[in-house]
Design a protein that fits this description.
This protein is of the alpha/beta class. The longest helix is centred in the first third of the chain and has 14 residues, at about 20-35. It contains six helices and seven strands. The protein has a single domain, classed as Rossmann fold, CATH 3.40.50.450.
Length: about 160
C-alpha cells in the first residue's frame, strides 16, 4: 500500500429524502451513529429530512459531517453539519455529494435520491440501498448492520 492509501480518510455518503417520516428519521439517525464508528467523515446534501437525521446521529457518534448544499447561503445547512460547502448549483450539487464519497448509502427518498443513485451507477461509486430504490446494480441491505458490513467490505476495513 502506498502512503496516500494508508493516510486517506474514508468518507461515506448518505442520501435520502429532504423530508421523511419518524420511522425513516430514526433509521437515518441510528445509521449515522453506527457509521461514525466505522468511517472518518459523512457527506450529504446538508439540508433536512434524512440528511439532518443522519448528520445528527453521526455527530452523536463522534464523527465529522460535511454538507454540500444547493444554495450559496451557509445558514440553510442543518445544525449538525460541521463543514458546509455552499455551491449555488441547486440539484446539480448531487454529483458532488456522490463523487466526494467512497461509498454511498441510499435511504428512502424521491427523485433527488434517484438522481444520486444514477450518478453512483454512472460514475462507479458503490451504492447500497437501505429500504430505498430497487435498481439493478445497487447493493441491497435489509438492516443497518448489513449496510455497515457492506461498507466495511467495500472499503476493506
Amino acid at each position: 500500500m502506498d502512503r496516500e492509501t494508508v493516510f486517506r480518510k474514508k468518507i461515506v455518503g448518505v442520501i435520502g429524502g429532504h423530508s421523511c417520516n419518524k420511522k425513516v428519521e430514526q433509521l437515518a439517525q441510528n445509521l449515522g451513529k453506527k457509521l461514525a464508528k466505522v468511517v472518518d467523515y459523512l457527506v450529504c446534501g446538508g439540508l433536512g429530512g434524512v440528511m439532518k437525521a443522519v448528520c445528527k446521529g453521526f455527530k452523536e457518534g463522534g464523527g465529522i459531517t460535511i454538507g454540500i448544499i444547493p444554495s450559496y447561503d451557509k445558514d440553510t445547512a442543518n445544525p449538525y453539519v460541521d463543514i458546509v460547502i455552499p455551491t449555488g448549483l441547486g440539484l446539480a450539487r448531487n454529483v458532488l455529494v456522490v463523487k466526494t464519497a467512497d461509498v454511498v448509502i441510499a435511504l428512502p427518498g424521491e427523485y433527488g435520491t434517484l438522481s444520486e443513485i444514477a450518478y453512483c451507477l454512472q460514475l462507479g461509486v458503490p451504492i447500497i440501498s437501505l429500504k430505498s430504490w430497487n435498481i439493478k446494480g445497487v447493493i441491497k441491505a435489509k438492516t443497518i448492520e448489513e449496510a455497515i458490513d457492506k461498507v466495511k467490505e467495500i472499503l476493506k476495513l
